[in-house]
């Protein structure tokens, strides 16, 4: 390169480098200024936060101070009351006005809870159901616990029978004999039944079931239909069997006296003993088992005098002698399915069904004082008589043999049960 060219290039390169250096310096200055502004903003924010925290701390400290002062005042009042012997459990002072909690219930919320049914029919939904429909619904949804004809299964409640037993030592309290209001039946069935499937029944199904329960208690005919329209007109058998409990006004004052602690009676005697366990042995010895048997215990079925109490007539003696005693004993067990509604033996009375003394050879529908269904009245007029064949056919399928019968029993399925109960009823005289 010639000397003249070098003299030109070097000044140009030097000027470029100087320009680049100046640009870099300016850029660094801008970045530094931006950084300074950012730091200043952060410092300002931190200062504001610190000021806010200080204000909150001051308020909290003031609240704590007020609480401590309140606690001190309460403790001072408590110490003053304790020293004065005042009651520390006296009720809180009354407050004027509302507390301002919650809200008023909406109409739909009230309606969801207001589901009870009153004796005069208030609260009932519209609907209807007849005995025939109720029979079918009851068999499907209720009979597994309450029996095919409301006689109760095992320890489940019996719903039919028990009339005129409430004054007995062992009363039978059923829907028919005891419950004073039909609304209780409807409300309980609709809200709580069937067991395990509560509130699955429709209003019509509930009306039908209640109608069938009334029919099982011989309180309505087989063509009866219950509805919200005639509900309030129906009067239960034991409506007048309850009184208002006036003991708080008339008797409680007599009980609130100083109890007698010694010499309260001129003498003390044992008047009754436990059925199985002799908890009151003679001489105060250890308790032992006595000789009582299960037959001595009460039963939930009133007046259940069965085949042991026969009339002793020659006819019964001849039947008993000619029939296997074990078959009669087996028939007595089968009769347990019947004794909720029927009575046999000495002094037998009509219950929800007629007594069955001297049944074989008796004209159908002929027991005095019993209100038979239309179909049995017709059979009586036709002169039909109970013989072994008719009884077996009837007990196998009552509703098929005697259409329209009030008896809700579904029937005996086993041939040996039919033979056994026939033998047992033959052994029972007048």
Query: Mind telling me the CATH superfamily name of the largest domain?
Result: Cytochrome c-like domain
Extended strand count: 4
The CATH architecture term of the largest domain is: Orthogonal Bundle
Work out the oligomeric state of the chains in this entry.
Answer: single chain
How is the main sheet built?
Answer: 2 strands, antiparallel
CATH domain fold name of the largest domain? Cytochrome Bc1 Complex, Chain D, domain 2
Gyration radius over CA: 45 Å
Our count of domains comes out at: 3
CATH class of the largest domain: Mainly Alpha
Helix content: 40-55%
Order of helices and strands: HHEHHHHEHHEEHHHHHH
Name the strands of the widest sheet in spatial order. 1-2
Strand share of the residues?
Answer: under 5%
Total DSSP helices:
14
Unreliably modeled segments: 284-317
- The average pLDDT score comes to 79
- Span between termini: 157 Å
Query: Any idea what the shape is?
Result: elongated
Describe, in plain words, how this protein is organized in 3D.
This is Cytochrome c. The chain has 14 helices and 4 strands. With 430 residues, the protein is mainly alpha-helical. It folds into 3 domains: 1-58; 119-241, Cytochrome c-like domain (Cytochrome Bc1 Complex, Chain D, domain 2, Orthogonal Bundle), CATH 1.10.760; 303-426, Cytochrome Bc1 Complex, Chain D, domain 2. Helix 5 crosses helix 6.
């Amino acid at each position: 390169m010639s000397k003249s060219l070098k003299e030109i290039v070097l000044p140009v390169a030097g000027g470029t480098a100087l320009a680049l250096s100046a640009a870099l310096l300016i850029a660094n200055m801008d970045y530094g200024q931006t950084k300074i502004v950012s730091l200043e903003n952060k410092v300002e924010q931190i200062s504001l936060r610190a000021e806010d925290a200080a204000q909150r701390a001051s308020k909290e400290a003031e609240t704590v101070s007020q609480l401590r002062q309140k606690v001190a005042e309460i403790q001072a009042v408590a110490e003053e009351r304790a020293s004065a012997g005042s009651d520390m459990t006296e009720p809180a002072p009354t407050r004027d006005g509302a507390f301002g909690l919650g809200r008023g219930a909406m109409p739909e919320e009230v309606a969801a809870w207001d589901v009870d049914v009153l004796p005069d029919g208030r609260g009932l939904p519209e609907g209807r159901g007849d005995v025939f429909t109720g029979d079918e619904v009851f068999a499907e949804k209720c009979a597994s616990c309450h029996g095919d004809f409301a006689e109760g299964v095992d320890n489940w409640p019996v719903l039919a029978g028990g009339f005129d037993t409430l004054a007995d030592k062992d009363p039978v309290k059923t829907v028919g004999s005891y419950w004073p209001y039909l609304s209780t039946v409807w409300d309980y069935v609709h809200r709580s039944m069937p067991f395990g499937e509560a509130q699955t029944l429709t209003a019509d199904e509930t009306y039908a079931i209640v109608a069938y329960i009334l029919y099982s208690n011989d309180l309505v005919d087989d063509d009866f239909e219950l509805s919200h329209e005639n509900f309030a007109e129906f009067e239960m058998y034991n409506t007048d069997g309850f009184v208002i409990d006036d003991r708080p006004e008339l008797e409680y004052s007599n009980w609130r006296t100083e109890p007698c602690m010694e010499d309260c009676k001129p003498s003390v005697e044992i008047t009754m003993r436990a059925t199985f366990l002799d908890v009151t042995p003679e001489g105060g010895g250890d308790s032992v088992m006595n000789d009582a048997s299960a037959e001595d215990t009460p039963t939930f079925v009133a007046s259940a005098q069965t085949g042991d109490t026969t009339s002793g007539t020659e006819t019964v003696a001849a039947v008993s002698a000619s029939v296997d005693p074990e078959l009669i004993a087996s028939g007595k067990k089968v009769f347990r399915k019947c004794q909720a509604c029927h009575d046999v033996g000495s002094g037998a009375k009509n219950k929800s069904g007629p007594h069955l003394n001297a049944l074989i050879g008796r004209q159908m529908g002929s027991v005095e004082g019993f209100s038979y269904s239309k179909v049995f009245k017709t059979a009586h007029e036709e002169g039909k008589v109970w013989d072994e064949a008719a009884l077996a056919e009837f007990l196998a399928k009552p509703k098929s043999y005697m259409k329209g019968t009030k008896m809700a029993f579904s029937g005996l399925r086993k041939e040996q049960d039919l033979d056994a109960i026939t033998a047992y009823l033959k052994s029972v005289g007048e």
